[in-house]
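Support request, please re-run this one:
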Amino acid sequence: MIDDYEKAIALTEKMEAQLPISVYATPQLLKTMEEKGEKCDRDRLFTIEKVHYSGDMGGITCALTPDSKSDMVFAVSLTHLRIPDDHPLASEIQSYQKKRTLRLAIADGKMGRAKRLAKQDRKKKGFGG
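Re-run finished. Output below.
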């Protein structure tokens, strides 16, 4: 199991209550968008218009609009988005993203990547901690 179902549903509901949510795309997502004809720079804000929990394999999916002038809507995994640190759900979303990314790496047999992600997730406790 990749997601904790109850926590994923709870986060989805919290996000729905906060819509629309401004986010940035990850470099991976920007590359995919460019391949689809949507040229974007890394500092461009996108807007999450809808969220949906698409099950354990899909996770939390977001409907993104690049801007008000675009007819395109992208269905994107929450793991491919960066939420500004000042958003009220930032820490909860970032925690979900880290856990999901780690569990996906483990499920895909990418143990090297999973170990690196787990190491990054450990909190520094200082000397002797």
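The mean pLDDT is 86. The chain has one domain: 5-121.
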